[in-house]
Structures are given as structure tokens and as C-alpha cells.
Amino acid sequence: MDPITNPYAPGAGQRPPELAGREEQLTTFDVVLKRVAAGRPDRSLVLTGLRGVGKTVLLNQLRSAAVRATWGTGKLEARPDQRLRRPLASALHQAVRELGHTQDDEVAHVLGVIKSFGQRDAAPGTKLREMWTGGIDAPAVKGRADSGDIEIDLVELLTDVGGLAADLGRGVGVFIDEMQDLGPDDVSALCAACHEISQSGLPVIVVGAGLPHLPAVLSASKSYSERLFRYVRIDRLPREAADLALTAPASEEDADFEPAALDALYAATGGYPYFIQAYGKSVWDVAPASPIRAEDVAVAAPEAEAELAVGFFGSRFERATPGEREYLRAMADVAARMAADAVDGEGGGLDEIESVATSEVAALLGKKPQSLSPARDALLKKGLIYSGERGRIAFTVPHFGRYLREQT
Fold it and tell me: Where is the Cytochrome c domain (predicted)?
């Protein structure tokens, strides 16, 4: 098959040629856009799931839907080492520009508030010429969104931005990727601001994406966050959608798959979107002709697995220290034992093992759980594992346990 016409696109946050299995989420979001723009309150949205399931892709698609609805939009990616003010100010600056409000004085005022909000992070004694501007020409508005209390300031900021959008009968969407990496104060402030804006009926929504424990992070910050957001779990694709993700792009290039090839690909990928693209690309490159056969999948599998081992699994594994790697391998072994017991008892396989007990990991390593806390906490901060409930942990990356067992 011609590698130049290869339609598959594995890449972090890169949209696949066929966005299969996400129709429900896109349809629901279109309703949210119309309701909020019409002044009818609706909840902000939070997408959760493992890495490689397409959260960032879907987040970008939702943002595109908001742009098509003539909303103002801005996007940021949270980082553990960065506070919210400046990236959010930059995102809202872009949103205001997209709105295209015609009243220059009102726009200048809101931009000045955004600037004031962003500059409040400056260290004492910072010279004026060194202050953050974010490309905003308007002068900072003193006394608005600059109190230093992030919760107060964020409410004032979103109120002014929302008012600008309401003038036009449109809305503003703030899209936050890796939302679980926001600091505790910023999470609390964001929840409080969303709550206040929703009660005011202003057309502002937040759309976040993060790891499976993100709902627990939000709930720990504000108990009412469970009612504040609409939580949508993004998971691996069911068989029909996974097949469509492969066959639809191929048909655009006058190519097809034999049923046995699709069986083999689903078994190899588990329906995870990133893996589907990686395997699809490798199979296309090695297949001599259409239709693609199961034999082609078998030949391509080592290449696809090698690519994933370096770019998807290996890059994450390399971030761990030797002690942390030992902990990760122990997690993988505990999960494998659980899967074997489940199969013997006619339960699910390895993909159904979502978490393991920290006590069992410690027992396998022959150590006390408390002595392993530093390694576990470091892995949590690095985003390699997550804890959805007390005393249990899980990999943030699908098939990571399988990768670890194959390395030893």
C-alpha cells in the first residue's frame, strides 16, 4: 500500500481521520451551546478517561463546535508548576477577540480587566515594563479582578467577559486540558466561579478534560461540584466504532479490510483510539494490497508495538526513577494475578482490572505500605498512576501493565 496515502494519524491530540464513537458527546454539547446562548442555565462539562482515549481530540472538536456557533473560545493546558491566572487570561483574551464585539470602549474595559487579572501574579517590586501584558494593549483596570483572592477575582473576570458575550447573544467557552493538574486553590476558585456564573445566567461555560480521578479532585475542592459539572467518561471504542475508525479512512483511498483483519486489530488495540491509529498506520504500510488481511496485521504488529513502546509507553516509563519503576512493575504483576483469578472464576480479563490495592502492591514487594508512599506520591505527581478511591491505584495509560511485564 502507498505510504503517501496512508490515512491514519497517530499523534498526541491529533484528530483521527474518522472521529468514530463520539457522536453522542458532540450532539449533547450542541444542545448545551444553544441553551446557554439563549440564557438558559446548563452545566459545564468535564471529560475524563485514560490517556490515549481521545480526550484532547474531543476537547478540540467541542471547541470547534463552539467556534462554529460564533462563540468566543480560549484553551489552556494546566500544568502542576503553573498557576491559573496567566494562562486563563491569555485564553480569555483570545475568546474576547473571537467574539468581535463592536463597542470598542466596552471591549477595552474587559481587556483591561483581563490584563489586571493576569498581572496580579507579579512578584512584589516587579517593574511596570516587566509586567505581563499577554499582547493586550488596553490599560489594566484597577480595582477589578485584582484583589489577590483568586476566587473573588475569577468571579469578577468571568462576569465581565460573560456580559460582553451576552450583549451579542452568544457565549464564551473556556477549554482546559489536563484539568487535574490545576492547583487546589485554582480548582476551588474555578468551581466557585462556575457556580456563581451559572446562578447569574451568564453565557460562560468551562469544558475540562482530565484523568479518571478528576471528579474526585473537583469534589474534594467543592462538594457541590458533583452537581456543577456534567461528567462524561471517555472510554475505548466499542467494536462497531473501532471498525469504522479503520474502514472509513481506508474507503476514502479505495481500500478495505477483511473481517479477520478487523478481528485481529480489535484484539490488538482493545478499541483504544490511539492504538487504533498506530496499528492502522503500520498495517497500511506493510500490506501489499487491498483488502488488508489478518496476515498483514500479524506482520505489522511488531512494528506497531515497537513504535508504541518508544513513543507512548517508553517516554513515560523513562520519567520514573528505579524505585518508582519497581513500584510500577509490582502494580502490573498484581493486576495480572487479579486478571488470572477473574478468568479462572469466569470473570473479565486484564483490561477489566481498573485498579489495584496499595496494600497488595506493598505485600508483593515485601514492604510496609508507608515505606512506599514516596514512590507512590511521585508517580501520582508525574501522572503515571492515579487514585480514584482511597487505598487503590491504577495506571493512567491503557496496556501499561502489559508493556511493563514484557520489559522484564
Answer: 166-317
